[in-house]
Predict the structure.
Amino acid sequence: MSHKQFIYYWQKWLLSILVRAVVVICLTVGVLGILASTAPMSNAQAVFAGSVAANAQLVSSTQRIQDKQTPLNSTALNATVYHSPDCNCCGGWIDHLKAEGFKITDFSTSDIETVKQKYNVPDNLSSCHTAIVNGYVIEGHVPADDIKRLLQEKPNVAGLSVPQMPVGTPGMEMGNRKDPFSVFSFDRKDSVAVFNKYPSS
């Protein structure tokens, strides 16, 4: 065998060894990757994965609630109030709203019934004054806290009402006397539901 033939066969043999080595390494890495992906997690890993999943679900649920509700500090409390010029208790209710942070636009009118008809206030829920607060109809002596809850929850209703003029409602105070009363919600189809209840005292 000549010197050139020896070098040729030696290079060919060395190349085949290198190719086999590369193939073995690739197969080994692939097998190790499969084993790692199917290996059971340790207790610590399982706890961590469960915690991450639970936290993700909690964040998602909290975000849905936040999307549905509007923080009051980002909602302007603007109320346009319509009332008869000789209604003293209406003025008391307006003062109540002002003390609770509402900005009032006050309209005195001798035709309050036309206002109620314009905003579709049900006859059985009518009271002495009608207000519009951020698009909702507020009829009668509705407490400010209920209006704020309405603005925060944004239910699919037309507005709230405290029918007639119960003693002890905001603007209808008479000493320590307080009659029981309910705050009702109503929609455009005249469906009525209890929004809140207040006991007597």
Q: What stands out?
A: Strands lie at 78-83, 103-108, 129-133, 136-140, 159-162, 181-186, 192-198. The longest strand covers residues 192-198. The radius of gyration is 37 Å. DSSP finds five helices and seven strands in the chain.
